[in-house]
């Protein structure tokens, strides 16, 4: 661990002052600290934001505002979230462990970094860790890597679960800028594709602090979060799907699907949602949805399996979410 | 009577059953349990040693070549840095179990990625770790590193003497039923919860090291040899070990580095392996490629048996994963071929990992046996029952006590085994295919020389001391029970002290021999004490009944304290393995039965029920023995479904060197484990009639799971671990 300066902020202004001077916010620390120990991240200064009043889950009209510092455990246990947004509670509970979720925060979870094996090994070239050094995962062991939206510079995946559900729910990230303004970014546009700048995971600008995630009015319908993984718990998704689907008279009235484990961001494809709406569920329809989703999907060797796995998992999820069975 | 015994013939006296205290075998709690769960049990790195400097190992980032220069100046001025040590005595590899001498030194000659080359010492751990990352090292890299495990284009040699008997090729071609298949397993890591750790202290004459080790009597010699001291001047302390699983059988590089640093700097030095280093520079279980050839007659009796394996290790290592160890004795077949080939690879040292040999050999063999049962069309349990040989098929010696048939029957009954033959894909629950599978368990019985000292104090309490270790298995518990039984004492009146090399040399924890060997030494010491008590009471030792602190002879009862009259009696028991293994084939046996669900869409496999029935001689403590069996079965789940230490084929480093990506089973992967202990006494095993149980629960467990996967969904995989992608690739439309 490289020596660093540590400051604790008591309010947002204080935090913003420190972050605009280059300090990195630290919340639960469950990701950032690990990365600092391994010197994958080497910030010169940290600002501990845990005393900034960014907690609490509060309704705002039809919407529900989740403070940036709400822990994953608290969020998943919240009665309103379990009732109105069960896909979110299920996605959170599918991630990490009790102990980690007790520390992990909403904002920290959104900003968690990739689990790419080569990103974690500071002896290996990695464009995300060290821009311009190359990508070791291409041509290497890439079982957990992307099949959609990757670039020649980086084929890493965004590893999280919570954000996949937020993406299906079309939630919004509320951000305090360095200048003291607030801006909002849909979760669907918050994470980036790697393109030629994989060092940037998301659209946060230097100095910006996430203040909340806002859920739109409850979408109704049936919620499913399906996570395919190597072991039953405490493993990142090989493929995951968040689905919020409302049926009406045997046809699909609305559909919002998001995918984890496939890309550098939680993957949302409007065309897939649109294809489903108005249709009567059938295997042929599900196949068409999978064709559309995976059009252009590309494996990199050890992750080739993700393409058929995404197709099969999508079918399972669509059968479940459009069926009568609970 | 003396306190020593060489195991040259069976000990039929069965003395423990004749004792009166009645604690042997009882499911007593561990005396060390409360200390462990409350955190007061101190592990190697946890001792508060004054003025202790912190060291972090620097490891190679090439797979083969030379260290040309270590630029000490690059870290000298960093905050807190005290020294960079790259002494020629540092060791480049861990010692193999029982080596008793220093492992390969010459750290500047790099033979694998992750090889230790230097130690950075600083005032704090964070400073040392930071400096270790900045230390500049110049290499000259060779371009002929052999790192692709699946390439045959590497040096391969035959290990040991193959067994070749009759004509297997002919037997296969003429057999009523034959199976010829190749199974593979990947590298495993012991992944003990406590990483390898040492605190070394040097007072100018004696080197004292708190370390996490399994076999102190060898470890003292290894460390002394490495650092150039007389073994008399080295003291090792390992009272608590947070798991070893073979990776702590021999000393590892951190202990030697800490010792050298302490001797050079004149202050205590602590070195703990980083988790990544546990994966990268201690010990792996070799990957294996196993060719199995089974030939059966029309009744399903084996007439041909072939098990040939390719394993790997670093150049210069003599250890080769003994894949065919149980194949040697388990099944018949007059036409036999057993052999092991060893590929020389530039990957971290391969060595003993819990149940070396059988852990991976049995899972492949039991898969092939299942395939044979399918071919013949008989119940796989019946196939096993028909193939229990009369005498050792190659050595023509008798078996010692063997409860294989009993285990197969008891396990089948407990599990509710269906018995009848059926085709796969018979049961579907929603998205899940459900199937069942079984396998035999077998693990060779090992013994090792051991000494233990037992002291009976004037107040009628006793103490046991040995340099034996308890690596979490329950050694403290069972050694206390043996002494309590033999001396007629309450278990709480016996204090067991272990893990100090100044105590008499025990067997060490390895090869499942700890309890039968060191336990026998305790038994022998107690027998000698009983003889001396008998002399005081004017009777024969056999006439003496000891119970609850009283001695009874011919109806006359005396308190032990009155017999002792203020004296204490101390005896050292000395047990030697002897020649018994040339006369009897002794092993532990068992049977696994499991129910597995396979997701028809995603190929995820989940174990839903798991029963194991085991016979391993006398049960010394039903609770700790059951825990050992369970732990083994959990390893079986990992071996079947998730565990794989992956090496990058281009660079030779471990791709997944942490517990987030090296997937051991988690609670949710493990269903209720149902363990049946089959009653047994094996007089040819030890004077306790006990064998070992620490490894048996793995040996074949993964095979049962693979067989259940096949029964569930019709997919027969032969490349462990059976991860979802591999299963899914073979599944039809959901
Ligand atoms: C072994 C392991 C297994 C895991 N498994 C899973 C899993 O299966 N699924 C899953 O989804 N997750 C998993 N996680 C990840 C876990 O969810 C994250 O570590 C956690 O959510 C991060 O939250 P935190 O508050 O601790 O973030 P921190 O570590 O404090 O911060 C993470 C990042 O967010 C930034 N940050 C934090 N707060 C703010 C803010 N308000 N504004 C701007 N930036 C901010 C930090 O600067 C840092 O870059 C796992 C983690 C571990 C260690
Ligand atoms: S995939 Fe991305 S994170 Fe991984 S090595 Fe390549 S550049 Fe680095």
Could you describe the 3D structure shown?
The complex is a heterodimer of chains A (326) and B (734). Chain A is an alpha+beta fold and 326 residues long. Among the domains of chain A are: 5-47; 222-321, 2-Layer Sandwich (Enolase-like, domain 1). Chain A is built from 12 helices and 11 strands. Chain A has helices at 12-20, 32-37, 72-77, 79-84, 86-93, 98-103, 106-110, 162-168, 187-190, 270-276, 283-294, 306-322; strands at 5-8, 24-26, 45-48, 57-60, 63-67, 172-176, 182-186, 209-215, 222-228, 239-248, 251-260. In chain A, strands 4-5-8-6-7 form a 5-stranded antiparallel β-sheet. In chain A, strand 10 (239-248) and strand 11 (251-260) form a beta hairpin. In chain A, helix 5 (86-93) packs antiparallel against helix 8 (162-168), helix 10 packs antiparallel against helix 11 (283-294) and helix 11 (283-294) crosses helix 12. The mean pLDDT of chain A is 97. Chain B has 18 helices and 30 strands. The mean pLDDT of chain B is 97. Classes of the chains: A alpha+beta (326), B alpha+beta (734). Iron/sulfur cluster binds at residues 114, 116, 118-119, 126-128, 135-137, 154-156, 198 of chain A. Chain B: Residues 38-143 form the Aldehyde oxidase/xanthine dehydrogenase a/b hammerhead domain. Chain B: GO terms for molecular function: iron ion binding; oxidoreductase activity. Chain B: This is Periplasmic aromatic aldehyde oxidoreductase, molybdenum binding subunit YagR. Chain B: It comes from Pacificimonas flava.
Describe the secondary-structure layout.
The complex is a heterodimer of chains A (326) and B (734).
Chain A: E1 5-8, H1 12-20, E2 24-26, H2 32-37, E3 45-48, E4 57-60, E5 63-67, H3 72-77, H4 79-84, H5 86-93, H6 98-103, H7 106-110, H8 162-168, E6 172-176, E7 182-186, H9 187-190, E8 209-215, E9 222-228, E10 239-248, E11 251-260, H10 270-276, H11 283-294, H12 306-322
Parallel strand pairs in A: 1-3, 2-3
Antiparallel strand pairs in A: 4-5, 5-8, 6-7, 6-8, 9-10, 10-11
Helix pairs in contact in A: 5-8, 10-11, 11-12
Chain B: E1 4-6, H1 15-18, H2 33-38, E2 53-59, E3 65-71, H3 73-76, E4 81-85, E5 109-110, E6 116-122, H4 125-134, E7 136-141, E8 156-165, H5 168-174, E9 177-185, E10 188-189, E11 197-202, E12 207-211, H6 216-227, E13 234-237, H7 253-265, E14 269-272, H8 275-281, E15 284-285, E16 288-296, E17 302-313, E18 335-344, H9 358-376, H10 380-385, H11 404-415, E19 427-429, E20 432-444, E21 450-456, E22 462-465, H12 475-487, E23 494-497, H13 514-537, E24 545-547, E25 550-553, E26 556-559, H14 560-564, E27 569-576, H15 580-583, E28 587-599, E29 605-615, H16 622-642, E30 673-677, H17 701-713, H18 724-730
Parallel strand pairs in B: 1-27, 2-14, 12-13, 17-18, 22-23, 29-30
Antiparallel strand pairs in B: 2-6, 3-5, 3-7, 4-6, 8-18, 9-16, 10-15, 11-12, 11-14, 16-17, 19-20, 20-28, 21-22, 21-27, 24-25, 25-26, 28-29
Helix pairs in contact in B: 9-17, 12-13, 16-17
The complex binds flavin-adenine dinucleotide (FAD) and iron/sulfur cluster.
Flavin-adenine dinucleotide binds next to strand 2, helix 2, helix 6, helix 7 and strand 8 of chain A.
């Amino acid at each position: 661990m490289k020596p660093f300066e540590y400051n604790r902020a008591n309010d947002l202004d204080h935090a913003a002052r420190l972050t605009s001077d280059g300090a990195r916010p630290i919340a639960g620390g469950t990701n950032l600290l690990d990365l600092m120990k391994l010197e994958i991240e080497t910030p010169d200064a940290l600002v501990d934001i845990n005393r900034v009043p960014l907690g609490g889950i509060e309704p705002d009209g039809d919407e529900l505002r989740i403070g940036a510092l709400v822990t994953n455990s608290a969020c998943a246990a919240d009665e309103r979230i379990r009732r109105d947004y069960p896909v979110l509670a299920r996605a959170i509970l599918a991630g990490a462990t009790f102990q980690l979720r007790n520390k992990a925060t909403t904002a920290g979870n959104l900003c968690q970094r990739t689990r790419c094996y080569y990103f974690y090994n500071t002896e290996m070239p990695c464009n995300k860790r060290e821009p311009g050094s190359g990508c070791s995962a291409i041509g290497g062991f890439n079982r957990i890597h992307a099949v959609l939206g990757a670039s020649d510079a980086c084929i890493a995946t965004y590893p999280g679960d919570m954000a996949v559900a937020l993406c299906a729910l079309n939630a919004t990230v509320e951000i305090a800028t360095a200048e003291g303004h607030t801006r909002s970014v849909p979760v669907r546009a918050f994470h980036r594709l790697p393109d030629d700048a994989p060092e940037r995971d998301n659209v946060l600008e230097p100095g910006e602090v996430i203040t909340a995630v806002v859920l739109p009015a409850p979408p109704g319908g049936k919620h499913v979060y399906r996570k395919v993984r190597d072991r039953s718990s405490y493993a990142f998704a090989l493929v995951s799907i968040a689905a919020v689907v409302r049926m009406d008279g045997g046809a699909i009235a609305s559909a919002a699907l998001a995918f984890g484990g496939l890309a550098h961001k939680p993957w949302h494809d409007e065309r897939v949602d649109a294809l489903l709406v108005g249709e009567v569920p059938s295997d042929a329809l599900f196949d068409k949805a999978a064709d559309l989703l995976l059009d252009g999907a590309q494996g990199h060797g050890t992750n080739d399996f993700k393409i058929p796995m995404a197709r099969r998992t999508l079918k399972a999820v669509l059968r479940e979410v459009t069926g009568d069975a609970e | 009577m003396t306190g020593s015994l060489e195991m040259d013939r069976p000990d039929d006296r069965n003395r423990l059953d004749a004792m009166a205290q009645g604690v042997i075998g009882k499911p007593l709690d561990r005396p060390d349990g409360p200390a462990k769960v409350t955190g007061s049990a101190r592990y190697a790195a946890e001792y508060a040693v004054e003025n202790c400097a912190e060291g972090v190992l620097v490891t190679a980032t090439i797979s083969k070549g030379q260290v040309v220069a270590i630029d000490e100046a690059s870290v000298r001025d960093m905050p807190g840095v005290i020294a960079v040590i790259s002494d020629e005595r540092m060791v480049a590899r861990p010692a193999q179990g029982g080596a008793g001498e220093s492992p390969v030194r010459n750290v500047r000659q790099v033979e694998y990625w992750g090889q230790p080359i230097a130690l950075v010492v600083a005032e704090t751990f964070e400073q040392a770790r930071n400096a270790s990352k900045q230390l500049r090292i110049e290499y000259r890299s060779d371009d002929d590193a052999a790192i692709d495990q699946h390439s045959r284009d590497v040096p391969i040699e035959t290990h040991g003497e193959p067994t070749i008997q009759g004509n297997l090729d002919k037997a296969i071609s003429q057999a009523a039923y034959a199976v010829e298949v190749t199974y593979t397993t990947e590298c495993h890591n012991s992944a003990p919860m406590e990483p390898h750790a040492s605190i070394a202290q040097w007072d100018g004459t004696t080197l004292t090291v708190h370390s996490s080790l399994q076999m102190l009597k060898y470890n003292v010699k290894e460390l002394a040899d490495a650092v150039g001291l007389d073994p008399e001047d080295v003291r090792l302390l390992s009272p608590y070990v947070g798991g070893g699983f073979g990776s702590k059988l021999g000393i590892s590089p951190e202990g030697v580095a800490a010792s050298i640093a302490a001797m050079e700097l004149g202050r205590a030095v602590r070195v703990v392996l980083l988790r990544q280093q546990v994966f990268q520079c201690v010990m792996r279980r070799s990957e294996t490629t196993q060719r199995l050839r089974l030939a059966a007659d029309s009744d399903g009796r084996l007439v041909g048996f072939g098990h040939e394996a390719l394993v790997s290790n670093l150049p210069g290592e003599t250890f080769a994963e003994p894949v065919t160890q149980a194949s040697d004795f388990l099944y018949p077949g007059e036409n036999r071929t057993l052999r092991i080939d060893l590929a020389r690879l530039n990957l971290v040292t391969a060595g003993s990992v819990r149940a070396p040999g059988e852990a991976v050999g049995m899972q492949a063999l039991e898969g092939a046996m299942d395939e044979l049962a399918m071919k013949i069309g008989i119940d796989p349990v019946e196939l096993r029952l028909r193939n229990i040989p009369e005498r050792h098929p190659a050595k023509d010696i008798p078996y010692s006590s063997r409860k294989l048939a009993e285990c197969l029957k008891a396990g089948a009954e407990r599990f509710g085994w269906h018995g009848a033959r059926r085709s796969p894909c018979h049961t579907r629950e929603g998205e899940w295919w459900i199937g069942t599978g079984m396998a035999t368990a077998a693990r060779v019985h090992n013994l090792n020389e051991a000494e233990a000292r037992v002291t009976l104090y004037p107040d009628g309490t006793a103490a046991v001391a040995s340099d034996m270790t308890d690596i979490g298995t329950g050694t403290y518990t069972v050694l206390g029970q043996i002494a309590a039984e033999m001396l007629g004492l309450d278990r709480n009146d016996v204090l067991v002290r272990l893990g100090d090399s100044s105590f008499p040399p025990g067997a060490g924890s390895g090869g499942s021999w700890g309890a039968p060997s060191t336990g026998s030494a305790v038994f022998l010491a107690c027998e000698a004490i009983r003889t001396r008590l008998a002399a005081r009471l004017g009777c024969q030792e056999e006439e003496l009944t000891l119970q609850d602190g009283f001695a009874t002879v011919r109806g006359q009862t005396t308190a032990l304290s009155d017999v002792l009259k203020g004296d204490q009696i101390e005896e050292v028991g000395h047990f030697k393995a002897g020649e018994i293994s040339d006369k009897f084939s002794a092993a532990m046996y068992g049977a696994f039965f499991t129910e597995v669900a396979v997701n028809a869409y995603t190929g995820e496999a989940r174990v839903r029920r798991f029963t194991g029935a085991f016979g391993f001689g006398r049960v010394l403590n039903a609770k700790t023995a059951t825990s050992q069996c369970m732990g083994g079965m959990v390893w079986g789940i990992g071996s079947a479904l998730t565990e794989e230490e992956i090496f990058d084929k281009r660079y030779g480093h471990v791709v997944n060197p942490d517990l987030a990506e090296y997937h051991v089973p988690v609670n949710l992967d493990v269903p209720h484990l149902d363990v049946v202990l089959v009653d047994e006494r094996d007089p040819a095993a030890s004077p306790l009639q006990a064998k070992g149980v620490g490894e048996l629960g793995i040996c074949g467990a993964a095979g049962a799971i693979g067989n259940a996967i096949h029964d569930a969904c019709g997919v027969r995989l032969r490349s462990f671990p059976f991860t979802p992608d591999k299963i899914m690739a073979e599944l039809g439309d959901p």
